[in-house]
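User: Reviewer 2 asked us to show a designed sequence for the structure in our supplementary figure. I'm pasting the structure tokens here. Could you produce the per-position amino acids so we can include them in the response letter?
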């Protein structure tokens, strides 16, 4: 399972970085996410489907990230907590880099905890839990 999950997040990082650069590939969303997912943030818990509404939310999210100066996103660490033979929590440590005319280059570290399922040798995200990313952005003067 570990090899499949590591490959998933290598693809996820490449997808994120290309999307941030304006090269969003809708077909790759289906490859990263399960058909349905759950998400928990300080704003609440939601459930969704891997389809047009997720794609639109992601496009809007990448547009927003570019507007506030995000220039790069890198995985700085990945640790797995197995649940059973097919499921785990992937604790992903990210570093986001921001820069604008009014903001020197600023790196912000944060963690997201992804629920991952491996089926037929293919790992997909079916949920995630994240902290208050807006508070971090405010703390660093990004927003």
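Assistant: Here is a per-position design you can include in the supplement:
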């Amino acid at each position: 399972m570990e090899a499949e999950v590591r490959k998933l997040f290598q693809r996820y990082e490449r997808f994120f970085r290309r999307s941030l650069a304006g090269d969003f590939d809708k077909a790759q969303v289906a490859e990263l996410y399960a058909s349905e997912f759950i998400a928990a943030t300080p704003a609440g818990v939601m459930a969704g489907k891997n389809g047009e509404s997720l794609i639109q939310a992601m496009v809007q999210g990448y547009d927003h990230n570019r507007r506030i100066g995000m220039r790069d996103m890198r995985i700085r660490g990945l640790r797995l907590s197995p649940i059973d033979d097919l499921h785990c929590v992937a604790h992903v440590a990210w570093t986001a880099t921001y820069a604008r005319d009014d903001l020197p280059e600023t790196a912000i570290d944060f963690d997201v905890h992804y629920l991952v399922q491996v089926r037929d040798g293919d790992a997909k995200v079916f949920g995630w839990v994240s902290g208050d990313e807006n508070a971090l952005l405010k703390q660093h003067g990004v927003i």
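For the response letter, you might also mention the following. The mean pLDDT is 96. The beta strands are 33-41, 44-49, 70-82, 87-100, 103-119, 122-130.
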